[in-house]
């Protein structure tokens, strides 16, 4: 009775599986826009990433990881946006993403 289903997703950078809620979602919307989906509510194909600095930096260096997960390569503008996002993100002492200034 009352069996709880916890959705698990895999980080595209380190391939670790975690409960979906612990991960950040990045979405390619049906309109083709790239969205950093903190609330995990945007429609579209999503990719998941740990909140760890190492994972974000890995994807900033290898945007192909994100392109592959979203089934469409990132445009040069989107790569720049991704790098900007990682630069603007705030991580705490445990290297966990805590806040991001929206551009
Ligand atoms: Zn990761």
From TrEMBL:
InterPro entries on file: YlxR, YlxR-like_sf, YlxR_dom
Cleavable signal peptide: none
Pfam families, A to Z: YlxR
SUPFAM superfamilies (alphabetical): YlxR-like
Every YlxR domain range: 9-82
Record's protein name: YlxR domain-containing protein
Record organism: Ardenticatena maritima
């Amino acid at each position: 009775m009352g069996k709880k289903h916890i959705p698990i997703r895999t980080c595209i950078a380190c391939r670790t599986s975690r409960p979906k809620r612990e991960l950040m979602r990045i979405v390619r919307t049906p309109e083709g826009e790239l969205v950093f989906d903190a609330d995990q509510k945007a429609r579209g194909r999503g990719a998941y990433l740990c909140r760890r600095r190492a994972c974000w930096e890995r994807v900033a260096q290898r945007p192909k990881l994100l392109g592959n997960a979203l089934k469409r390569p990132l445009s040069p503008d989107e790569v720049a946006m991704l790098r900007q996002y990682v630069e603007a993100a705030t991580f705490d002492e445990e290297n966990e993403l805590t806040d991001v200034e929206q551009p």
